[in-house]
Amino acid sequence: MFLSWWYNFALLATTVIARKDSTNLPPDFDSPSAVYRPKFRYWLPDAAVDHELLVHDISDIRNVGAGGLEFVPYYNYGFGTGDISNWDVYAFGKPAFKNAFQAALEACKSNNLVMDFALGASQGQGVPVEPLTPGLAVQLVYGRISVKGGEQFQGKLPEPMIDWRQNIGFMQTQEVFGESRLVAKHSDNGDSLIALDEASMVDLSEKVVEGQLKWRAPPDHDKYVIFALYERFTNQRSCVGIPTDVIANGSWVTDHYSAAGTKLVTKFWEENLLDTEIRDLLQSIGQHYSMEIQASLYWTPDFVERFTVNRGYNPVKYLPLMFHQSNSFHGYEAPYNTTFYLEGEGYGDQGKYLQDYRLTLTEGYSEYLEALESWAQSLGVSHSSQVAYNQPVDLSATVPLVSGPELESLGFVNVDQMLQFVGPAHLGDRNVISTEVGAVASGAYSLTLPSLIRLFHDAFASGVNMMLIHGTPYSGDQINSTWPGYTPFQYRFTDPWGPRQPAWNHIAENLNYTGRNQFILQSGIAKRELAFYLCKDPWRISTAQDGGYLRQSGLTYEYLGPANLNDERAIVSDGVLGSSGPGYRALILDHQPCISAEAAEKLVKFANDGLPIVIIGDLPNSTIGTSGQETVLKRMADLKSVAYSNVKFITHSNSLTRALDELAVKSRVSVRSSVPSSAAKKLYTLWRSDESIDYVFFHNSGASATYNISMEAKKNRVPYKLNAWTGAQEPIAVYGRSPTGVSMQLTLQSNQTAIIALVAGAALDHVISHSDNVVRVSYGSENKFDILLDDTRAASLVLSNGHERNIPATTKDTKVLVYEKDLGPWDLTIESWVPSSNFSVFRSAKEMLHLGPQATLLPWSEIPEIQNVSGVGIYTSKFSVPISSWLAKGQVAVFIHFGPVLNTLRAWVNGKQLPPMDIFDAGLDISDYIKPGPNIIRVETSSTLFNAVKARSHVIKTNGVGPLDPNMYNSASWQPQGLVGPVRIKSLRKVVI
Q1: What is the C-alpha to C-alpha distance for residues 304 and 448, in angstroms, rounded to an integer?
Q2: How confident is the model at residue 19 (pLDDT cuts 50, 70, 90)?
Q3: Which keywords does this Swiss-Prot/TrEMBL entry list (predicted)?
Q4: Which of 139, 214, 350, 391 is the most exposed place for a label (fewest CB within 10 A)?
Q5: Based on the number of CB atoms within 10 Å of its own CB, is 2 exposed (0-12), middle (13-18) or buried (19 or more)?
Q6: 979/857 Cα distance (integer angstroms)
Q7: DSSP letters along 447-492, please?
């Protein structure tokens, strides 16, 4: 275990000659430009902010290595602060907001940052406008009354039931005003058992005169239900206000299912915010948009007309069926206590009329997105959206419509779920895919940087390549707020990053690391071996499979939906699907029940064009919606009856890799073996291909492991290791080559990543094998090899030119070359971050706590006198090495390892700061920092602010309100922080040949 670290770190060592060996290496990897760097979501409390502080906040974001921010007019999530009496001046859209917005744009421009921005207050769901204005969000509601069979109903239509079950707490509830427009009137037989007889459903709209109905129920059923369906505005605010004028009165959610909603948004911006100066600023740096809305039944005024034209029948008599849990926000619950379904069909969400509703809603949502996309392009900016998030529309169909598709780690909780988002984006030529990342419901100030980076790694493994960090708040004063500062979401979600956090001064290494990874993961084109066809209706975020059995074979995959198969870019060429894009080498259908008629046609075409296809279980046998069933059955029969050599049918996924082998489907990366043997199931790989470079990203999500890997490579490709923590690019000196690729050994600690670049250029002589006591081989000066060994025995190497080189064992007087020692004792001083004497002052006071010598390194949570402390730990120790003379001769190298990093770590040896370290394997070569005699080492570790906040959770407030869930602090344990070690130095023999 210990030796695996030394070997791995050898692969990550820096070298100054790397770039001289190939002009094709990415020149900006060391210091990527802002567009590749992670961004922060910036929460502006309202427009009553100090512009100097706003500009200072933006400079702080630049200074720690971020590439930009997403400017969110937060307005307390639209609920308002404790006092909104001044919002006649400071509401979203007022001149004061415009001035703050312009100040932010100018600050981003002067700091060379990218600035995204939400199109409205809170999450951007709406804009200020007169209530009841066309283009605002509408919904469908109903009233109902029962009539006995054979009886006559005569009178006023049932009143709409507008008191439905809304989501409360995190979204504004609807306000009750305005009229309800009658959409339809029809009857069904039904009762409290909620089953309806389809044959008895009658549209009575033509019998309604001035709101009155006269109708006799047929005698063939005991009971009928008369429904009156009404369209009405949702009257849902996205932000509260005061009724002094239209803009001060807050923002209202717009229609997200037609271009009419887009027109309201664009009209407001063009009339109130987009003067010439701001337009010019946007053209150089702006983008972004997101949404969050609810309705009894999502609707748009032309829904019936669109439905009738596109589905081929009038939906009116089926509308009561649509008030179903599957059509609600996030699929939480049905809007009314009674849910109706067709007798014989069951309560499930796969009813054909429900599917037709969602198909039509998706078409309206697509129109809305396309209108926003066109408007953004007219401004010279790109449009980003958390596409289809929480809405009953087809995510896979709509992701490609947006130039900047974005997901959220709070909703997409694992790699497989993210792959369902990423696949449609890749096939749709969307290169930059972002995630709002870091919102964890564990209490504000609790998220450690290793935990945040682990979230990044999962996103990277899926192909998401832009991190939008949640978030950083305005740093200035806020009414009725206390230390440690303005904290959004009532302290529930992580995390308010910024100078208030002890880790802020250490975060640059992490953001530089992230930016370098994103630079690589946005270079070239993402490639996958497998596309899994996935039919979800309704579309919900859920895990489809683990995929470990595929990763064990080096196979990568993502998902495509029915609309993606029908995409014009879904073309098979030379047996590859989307060859100019993700380049899928096979299409897999794993027990998928449904498919659209268009996708069924395309599937047969793929088979005819030679794409390898594997069907696990039965073929889809059901269309989506009411039309196309005949086509689906015919095309699926064609697929099964024709003896395609490129189509295989298997019964279980455990036979998939064998079927792919039989179809000659090969992975770009293969794992020939691993130690432990099952480790490859946790190894994620991602391939990016450019004209002169192929990049391979590795992420080990399991325990520490060593892998023997091989990668496809043209004969003129040379492997390099790119170190995202330091920016170094080093030619790999130990690898094998075959006619089709290169092979090597790779060791990764848990949660560690690596980047290998296969670069066009002339190959140097390299080592193809060596004895097991060789720890590292790297290129030194003058075309020589620098070799490190972990013992004094003889060693041997075989070179690519056929020569064998032998290294003799050490003599008696050089046995001391191999040396190992744990450092200590450690003198500990803590800079404790606490409130000042005035609790309303946001900036922390710093108190120095001198704890003296520590014989054993323990987390602060296990030291009683500092378990409730947050801040910066300063550890110092002295050490000497008995090998300094050999070090001076270049015959030994000394490495140090610091043990687990709980949050951040920086170190100095003899006053010189060490380079950034991989927080998942914190060690490096310190040979150049050691001197003869005593050496002094200093280590700084920063903590989160959680322990200090937990100790004061009963008195902290934002806008007069304390933590929404005090148990997040009261019931939580003290966080372990500090240096826990062991801190160990180890020497290795060094030989140059």
Answers
A1: 51
A2: very low
A3: Signal
A4: 214
A5: exposed
A6: 7
A7: --HHHHHHHHHHHHHHT--EEEEEEEE--S--TT--TT---GGGG-
What number does CATH give the domain 820-943+978-992? Answer: 2.60.120.260
**Cis before 191 (ω within 30):** no
Q: Are 572 and 434 in contact (CB under 8 A)?
A: no
Closest residue by Cα to residue 14 from 508, 731, 519 = 731
Instruction: List for the chain the helix, strand, coil content (%; round to 5).
Output: 25, 30, 45
**What are the tens digits of pLDDT across the range 448-475?**
999 999 999 999 999 999 999 999 999 9
Give which of 507, 431, 502 is closest to 469, Cα–Cα: 507
8 A C-beta contact, residue 286 and residue 117: yes
Nearest Cα neighbor of 267 from 88, 127, 384 is: 127
Encode 103-166 in three state secondary structure: HHHHHHHHCCCEEEECCCCCCCCEECCCCCCECECEEEEEEEEEEECCCEEEEECCCCCCCCCC
How many Cβ atoms are within 10 Å of 678's Cβ, its own excluded? Answer: 13
CA dist list (Å): 923 to 15, 346, 729, 917: 16, 61, 18, 6
What is the average pLDDT across 594-610? Answer: 98
Which sign does the torsion angle of CA 254, 256, 257, 262 carry?
Answer: positive
CATH of domain 34-130+239-291+386-521: 3.20.20.80
E strand or H helix at 342, and its extent?
A: strand 341-342
pLDDT band at 192 (very low <50, low <70, confident <90, very high): very low
**Burial class (CB within 10 angstroms; exposed 0-12, middle 13-18, buried 19+) of 509:** buried
Cα separation, 516 vs 726, in Å, equals: 9
Residue 249 is predicted with a pLDDT of 95
Global pTM? 0.95
7, 747 contact by CB (below 8 A)? yes
**Paired strand residues for 738:** 741
- As given in the structure block, the two tokens for residue 771 are 């004895």
What value does the mean pLDDT take over residues 433-444? 97
Is the distance from CB of 723 to CB of 778 less than 8 angstroms?
no
Nearest to 263 by CA among 104, 127, 165: 127
* Confidence tier at 78 by pLDDT (50, 70, 90): confident
Please tell me whether residue 97 adopts helix, strand or coil conformation. Answer: helix
Question: 652: exposed, middle or buried (C-beta count within 10 Å: 0-12, 13-18, 19+)?
Answer: exposed
> What's residue 526's pLDDT?
98
DSSP single-letter state for residue 911 = T
Backbone φ and ψ for 964, nearest 5 degrees, come out as -60, -40
Dist. CA 26–CA 37, nearest whole Å: 16
pLDDT in the model for residue 347:
67
CA atoms within 13 A on the CB side of 289: 25
The mean pLDDT value of the chain amounts to 92
Mean pLDDT of 424-443: 97
626 three-state secondary structure:
coil
DSSP strand pairing (39-44 vs 237-239): unpaired
Q: Strand locations in 841-900, DSSP E?
A: 845-854, 871-879, 892-897
3-state secondary structure of 743: strand
The residue among 561, 600, 535 whose CA lies nearest residue 424 is: 561
Contact 692, 759 (CB under 8 A): yes
Place of tokens 């919002």: 87
Going along 619-752, which residue ranges are E strands?
647-650, 669-675, 683-689, 693-700, 705-712, 717-722, 729-731, 736-738, 741-748
The angle at the Cα of 462, spanning 7 to 579, to the nearest 5 degrees, equals 105
Q: Nearest to residue 87, comparing CAs of 128, 55, 116?
A: 128
Could you say which DSSP state residue 765 is in?
P
Number of H helices, E strands in the chain: 20, 53
Nearest to 88 by CA among 283, 266, 241, 285: 241
